[in-house]
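Checklist before submission:
- one chain only
- standard amino acids only
- sequence pasted in full

Submission:
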Amino acid sequence: MLDKKVINLLQKIVGKEHLTTAPEDLLSYSYDATQIMHLPEAVVFPGTAEEIAAILKLANQYHFAVIPRGAGSGMSGGAVPIKGGVVLAMSRLNRILEIDCANMTVLVEPGVVTAELQEAVAKKGLFYPPDPASLSFSSIGGNVAECAGGPRAVKYGVTKDYVLGLEVVLPNGEIIHTGKKTIKRVTGYDLTSLFVGSEGTLGIFTKILLRLLPLPEMRATILLGLPRLSSLPLVLNALLRLPEPLTAIEFIDDLCLECVVSKLPFRLPQVEGLLLLEMDGSKKVVETRQKDLLELLNHLEVKIITTALGEKAKGLWEVRRAISPAVFQLGEKKSSHDIVVPRAKLLPMIERIKALREEYGLPVFCFGHIGDGNLHVNIMYNQGEEEMAQSVTEEVIKAALAFDGTISGEHGIGLTKARFMPWEIEPAALRLMQTLKRTLDPNNILNPGKIFEV
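Returned file contents:
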């Protein structure tokens, strides 16, 4: 428990107005998108790296947990304060510090909202590609901590591919800087990559240097129906072998489709799934590529449902982003997983998911970034069905690993997947990860209980 002395010391660091122990505030910072809830003992709103450093030094002295938190939109319990302690809310660190057009980089603080960053650089003719479904409210710090992805990962990659450097407060309160604006750099170990995806367990980001690209002039979107799911491998293979990569290849299964069909502004033919394709580039190139792609699709076992250019494509993507809230018509609670399998194993993985639906009598479905093998598997259940949902979860994880896949592609391990880490990571590699954590954080101050079961 934090005693009054520690609270007073924290107030001296950040100011009384930037610390709260009010019950209603503690409740607001006790959970993330998983809805797992553990109350912290205080919430602190630091304004500088130096304040964070002082808080961490205090935490080591008095042995209380510090849990960094962005927007709280994480899907694996990474921001849940399961050991109590202090939640470090990063919302005050929300400035875009520099947009460097000449070098095509941007320097931001971790509390900047992803969509707001994209809008700001777009005004300069620049482009930040990572686009997690939560981009309208998730923060860049959380994106970096989880190595967030999104539909555009097929062409552009994920968050780690855009992080050039970091300012990081280590668990002991030291402040370090990693990376440079340069594209190439092999001076010593790649510490930037070590911290990206570390889920707030190795350090706290206070500045993030990101690389940018030229803003594409045009987007084109095509919605396809799969009359038979069995045609998916042939269709996907053809799409992935195009001379120029598609920006996104998204999949929506039959059960997801039932949940969002009422939101579609057109009638659907009888299909077993949907594919949502996107390409981008110059207007001339996109128009030509769209025409060529439509010609190719006429020779495949798909139904072309609709196409859209430019801003008109946003409506189709809103349907895709509406899936997560829409599925609550199938159950009161949701267990979400973001497995990845080699693309050649996607059909058997999807078939296994459908089989689990029948075996357990629960709504089990998937959608996601099929172009890079990333499936979002969701299990809907009601009060009293928790044990059954947990059994389905284990079967999903086992199937992903049996198909030489991984248990998480972009949501992270956090709290919800920690017990599955030994299922995928060999003992020697797991010990090395734990050694890194102990070396940087010997008192287990920073976000304890995440990634590794303790």
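Reviewer check: The chain has 16 helices and 18 strands.
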